[in-house]
Amino acid sequence: METPVSFGTAMKSECKQSDDGTNVPYPGIPPPLHGLLCSSPGKTPAACVTRALMSDAAGNSENKDSSVIQDVVESHSSVIQTNVFIAGGGPAGVGILIRLEREGKLQEILQTPLDGDMVGDVVHPIVVVDKSARYRFGVGKLGKYLCPSNTSAACFVKNVSRKGNDGVVPGEFLQSVESQDTAKGLLSVGSHPADLTEVGSFLGAVSEKLRAERFEHPDSLGKVYLSTSIDSVEVGEDDYFKIYCTRTNTLTQHDQQIVFRAKKVLLALGGKPHYPMNIRLSIDKHIALQTKRLKELTSKVSKPVNKKKPTLPLVLSSDEVMMKDGLKKIFEKLRPLCGGSSIKSLMANPQVLIVGASHSALAAAYLLLKASGGDERLNGHIHLSTNNSKIGAEEKNELRENGKGMYCFKTGDIVMFHRTSPKLFFFNVQNAQSEGFVIDPDQISGRKRVNPHSGLRGPARTLALKIKNGRELRAKYMLCKQENGLMKYLEKFMPRVIIYATGYGAIANDIPFTQHNGGAVEFDLNKIGALNINAQGEVLVKANGSPIALRNCYSVGLGTAYPTDHPAVNGEKGNDSKSADGVNLYQTNYAKHLIPQIWPELERDSFTEQIEENTVSMKEEKKG
Questions:
Q1: Residue 209 half-sphere exposure, CB side, CA atoms within 13 Å?
Q2: I need a labelling partner for 312 at 20 to 30 A (CA). Which of 219, 433, 467, 514 fits?
């Protein structure tokens, strides 16, 4: 195996001093940097470089010289060593850092030197790599979603800054985040759903505080590399991981290749919309038939009377619909229908067909209905111009009525195809039965909640109940279990918009993983392309057709299949096909489960005693 070259060994061979201690030019290093490399009396040049590197935020330095130093060091280093490599700095990747900070362990980890392969090696305790720029660190795609949260707004803040149900009391470092405007805004909303763009802003503020005050602390050995993407991963013969990355320098816009060597890897790269092949084929076939009909119609001199003109549908994922560009595309597609008679609409086909009835499907339907109803916040994001000479008289009347040029959905305009009935969350069995649901024992968690992780929550749940009880007629469910049934309904309805809401696969599966001998590492995926994991949270890979754990490679976040009955979740049973996911889980259940696996060397006795002491105190307070 190739012997890694550390910062120290890489620079030591190039740094020279004369007998009187003055600097001598370094081969391959620009002269203006010589003074920076050896500016500390009594320290070796390599130590000076390491110190400068430690004090700089990767790729986001406000000190131009230290940023250049980092580039010089990394260009002279074959491998950068780390104990734990966190791939992804979104809500899931930062969630475990927040938990470590709540336990009072993050600073201890970042400031504890670790032994490397060679004397003088620098081993970073934690390296976080994310493709985003600094202002997106900790936010991910969450900050772009226009739909509301499915949990209370205040909960996002309290899970960070206040005493938890497990008795953990965060220190002043995290308690101070409540003074930020983003935290105040969420706390003021209380138990109501949050605007996810505001949640993203809050998480971004917390993440930046961790980066600036923990990772960039003078005594910290941890590193955050932003504007850095992962190209490939190699599993070494010694069970270490080599991660090959490309970093874009924010000052020069030049790409730089960096290689990391990690003892452990936590994949938190997020998910991507899953587009099942059978559904894709049905939709593609429908589009092909519509295209053929449209060509035939336009080629005829005399057009047939009273025959509906074929329409090529807009096809997009529910993930796209939840962001402003996707939502705007839908209303642009529906715009020619503005001003249509509501009487005629009772006999019309649905305009939007959603494949799926999951939370993302209901969230998409909720956004469409909300925007159609004149919601000012949404209309502000997707405002359609009314300065169009091609707009007809009926449409102009509709534009004058709602002022935004938004199509107003009518009865039966939105149809959601589903294979099984949607599940809803209830606080107890009695509440579920009062709404007419028959509850199976497997749907009940240890805390006697019904579908706490697999059930719809928040506004999506409210919409589902309204549809079920006949209080929302603009959207409806339709059972469709077979692909040929989908094709039949596509031909019958000829919808203008098709949305697929069929789950999220793993982005990590797009990154080549190889063994040291060049053989490919194949992930064990569930039916929607999410990573399967074992009880410890380690990623499963295929070996001779059977799944085995990829040792010391863990995964968390969207695109990771944590069944609701996984030890980390401890929720309802019998939901292997439904993964539990959410920001609060990243910071609580999943983080608490993964920390002992990734950092077993942490002394947790005092921490356990603190939890027990706080739990007793909380019980006494309740009795009082």
A1: 18
A2: 467
